[in-house]
Each structure stands twice: as structure tokens, then as C-alpha cells.
Design a protein that fits this description.
The chain is an all-beta fold. It has a single domain, classed as 6 Propeller (Neuraminidase). Helices cover 0% and strands 43% of the residues. It is built from no helices and 27 strands. It has a six-stranded antiparallel β-sheet with strand order 2-3-20-19-18-17, with no helix packed on it. The chain has a five-stranded antiparallel β-sheet with strand order 1-24-23-22-21, with no helix packed on it. It has a four-stranded antiparallel β-sheet with strand order 4-27-26-25, with no helix packed on it. The relative contact order is 0.17.
């Protein structure tokens, strides 16, 4: 563990020399969804802020929950005690049963793996027992909804319904994270498919974060009428998480210089390919934090009790970010290789998904694995 920064809330800019991470502006107000804040907007100091929850730290005790996975990409924990895991290259969805066994629940049709494409994100809606999947085919990236059938320990994939198709695909920059937001709608991160300028083109859904109804229609209150686009100017976002105030955070791969953690507001433009990282340029929203690409390459993102946790692939660690104080800490650096996803686990724990068998890592004994680490207040 290495403490990187613990800035006082309210500082406009914090430059961390030699640490590979910089902080931009304070967190926008929780009600900022009605408009796009400028990069220099600050919070009101007229009232005494409420006590903030403590930052959380990861225990040094790591438990292996599952092993022997093949290029896993996404984790979804179900209330019935099972966890679903997508495998990018095999197109198989596996179930980690309540007893700890690993079994296949089905193979997703039409997946064409290669490079960074294949079977990517998963999202689950309990009320309808629907499982959404983000996948790469021979011609596009798309989202398909499946009926999830059976009970815990004996789950299977039912019929599939196409929700969204026609997202451009490429060897890299496919995005692929999908999650259900606090509003009950489906959000998806879509990369620029190696075509940077389409990130600024509202006629393209690539290089965007999308928001849609569960039947694949456009919500009436989306920021651009008739479009799925929720935010634009993204290169390759792969992590999403909402905090207690309902703010959407997203982690994003940069190109050669800066990876980003952004606060997403409806209609916000995050600058790619005009800018990368903190630029202070009018019309674009700066990231809240940025990292050098060799210490991050961020993928999955999770939120627990006031703290964000960000998986790092090239950085081979988990970053914790406490927005109210600006404290940033890295954990497990180099101990378990590439980290693809993080999700809140049971009983105040964090589950961590390694990604060493995807062709870019160095597989270790048991890879790939799901690890469990307990979370406790820092200090």
C-alpha cells in the first residue's frame, strides 16, 4: 500500500509530482445533473459540511474465492448468493454458486472474440430476472437481454432479445461496461473503436456513455432528444459507479499520457480527442483525477461507503479514491497482476477479478481468480 495524496476538500488543483496522479476540481454539487459544470466550478462553503464517511482500506488478508477462469471480464453478484462471470474469449458465462463451485450457465451466441473484443459486460435486473450482456460480433458491438432461468446453483440462459446493435467494433477501444443506474435504466460505456473523432460526433454512439430503457428505447429525458447519448468525448471508458448522492463516476483509458476518473453529467463533453486529461479548456469537462498510463489503465469501478475502488490493468493494482478529501491510495501493487473488475462483496468486503490470461498478462498459478479483501476504515 502506498499513500498518494490526501488533499483538503476545496483545493482547486493538486499536482502530485512523481506519483503519476493529479487531482483536478472539487466534486460538483449532487444536483449538478441539471446542467454541465465548468471545470472551475466549486462547492458552496456557506454551510458547515456534514461529517464525511471514513475512507476505507483493504486488508492485507486476501482470500481466493474462485480460480481457473479464462480471460474473465465482468462480475455480477446476485441476491440469491450466486455470482455471474463473463469470459471474453470463450463467450461463456459462468456461475460461482453459493457453495463455491464454478459451472457454466451458457454460451452467448454470435460472439466474435479477438483483441479487446468478445463477451464483455454483464448487468442484472432482479425484478424481471433479466441478464444484459455487451458483446462483440463479426460486424458490431451490441447489447442483448437474456432471461435468466433456474435457481442458485443451477442457473441457465433463456431466450435472448436484441436491445441495441450497430455500435462500431474494432480490435481495441470497444468499451463494454454495462450497469443498471439508480434510476433503473441501463447505462453502457462505448469506446471510439479506434476512430477518435467519432467521440465528438452525435451521429455516432461510439466514444460515448449511453443511457437507455430496459427495452432498448431512448428515455424521454436524455440530454440529446431522440439519442442514447448521455455523455460524449470519451476514448475508451470501462468503469461506472454511482455514489450515495447519485453521481455517476466513470473510469477511462487515456492514450499515451493520462488515464481519467470523471464525474459524468448529462450532456457533458469530456474532450477526447481534442484534449486528454486535465486541460482547463472551455467547453470540456476535466477529469476529477488523472493517472499516468503506466500506473493505471483503468477498467472496473466500484463504490462502497464513501470510497471508490478502481481496477488497474497495466498498473496491476486497485486504486481507492475518497472524493470528499481527495485521498488516493493504491493497494496490492504487482501482487496479483492485472485487475479487470472490482465489485462490493458480502459483509463489507471487496471482490477483485484478475485478468492475466487475456494475452497481455503473465498468468500465475490459479489464474485467473476472484479475490476477496475486507474493507475497514483507514486510520
Amino acid at each position: 500500500m502506498r499513500l498518494v495524496a490526501a488533499a483538503a476538500a476545496g483545493l482547486a488543483v493538486l499536482v502530485l509530482v512523481g506519483c503519476g496522479v493529479q487531482r483536478a476540481t472539487p466534486v460538483p454539487n449532487a444536483d449538478s445533473s441539471s446542467s454541465t459544470p465548468s471545470p472551475t466550478e466549486t462547492q458552496s462553503t456557506e454551510t458547515e459540511p456534514a461529517p464525511e464517511p471514513p475512507q476505507l482500506e483493504l486488508s492485507s488478508d486476501v482470500t481466493v474465492i474462485a480460480s481457473g477462469l479464462n480471460a474473465p471480464w465482468s462480475l455480477v453478484r446476485l441476491r440469491n448468493g450466486s455470482t455471474l462471470i463473463s469470459e471474453r474469449d470463450t463467450a461463456v458465462i459462468k456461475e460461482l454458486t453459493p457453495s463455491g463451485a464454478i459451472r457454466e450457465i451458457g454460451t452467448v451466441p454470435d460472439v466474435a472474440s479477438g483483441g479487446e473484443g468478445g463477451l464483455l459486460g454483464l448487468a442484472y435486473v432482479r425484478a424481471q430476472n433479466w441478464l444484459f450482456v455487451y458483446l462483440t460480433t463479426e460486424s458490431d458491438n451490441r447489447i442483448v437481454r437474456f432471461e435468466l432461468e433456474g435457481e442458485a446453483g443451477n442457473l441457465s440462459l433463456g431466450d435472448g432479445t436484441l436491445i441495441l446493435s450497430g455500435l462500431e467494433r474494432e480490435w481495441n477501444h470497444n468499451g463494454g461496461r454495462i450497469k443498471i443506474g439508480p434510476d433503473g435504466l441501463l447505462y453502457a460505456t462505448v469506446g471510439d473503436a479506434g476512430q477518435p473523432w467519432i467521440s465528438q460526433d452525435l451521429n455516432s454512439a461510439n466514444g460515448k456513455i449511453l443511457r437507455m430503457e430496459l427495452d432498448g428505447t431512448v428515455p424521454s429525458d436524455n440530454p440529446f432528444p431522440g439519442l442514447f447519448v448521455y455523455s460524449l468525448g470519451h476514448r475508451n471508458p470501462q468503469g461506472m459507479a454511482w455514489d450515495d448522492s447519485g453521481r455517476l463516476w466513470a473510469s477511462e483509458f487515456g492514450q499515451n499520457t493520462w488515464d481519467e476518473l470523471n464525474i459524468i453529467v448529462p450532456g457533458g463533453n469530456y474532450g477526447w480527442p481534442v484534449v486528454e486529461g486535465i486541460a482547463g479548456e472551455s467547453g470540456f469537462i476535466d477529469p476529477y483525477f488523472q493517472w499516468s498510463t503506466d500506473s493505471a489503465s483503468p477498467s472496473g469501478l466500484a463504490y462502497s461507503n464513501g470510497t471508490l475502488f478502481m481496477a488497474a490493468l497495466r498498473g496491476q493494482r486497485v486504486w481507492s479514491i475518497h472524493p470528499p478529501t481527495g485521498a488516493v491510495v493504491d493497494w496490492l501493487a504487482g501482487s496479483y497482476g492485472r485487475i479487470r473488475d472490482v465489485v462490493p462483496g458480502p459483509g463489507g468486503t471487496l471482490w477483485i477479478l484478475t485478468n492475466n490470461t487475456d494475452g497481455r498478462g503473465t498468468p500465475r498459478a490459479g489464474d485467473d481468480q476472484i479475490l476477496q479483501v475486507s474493507l475497514t476504515p483507514l486510520g
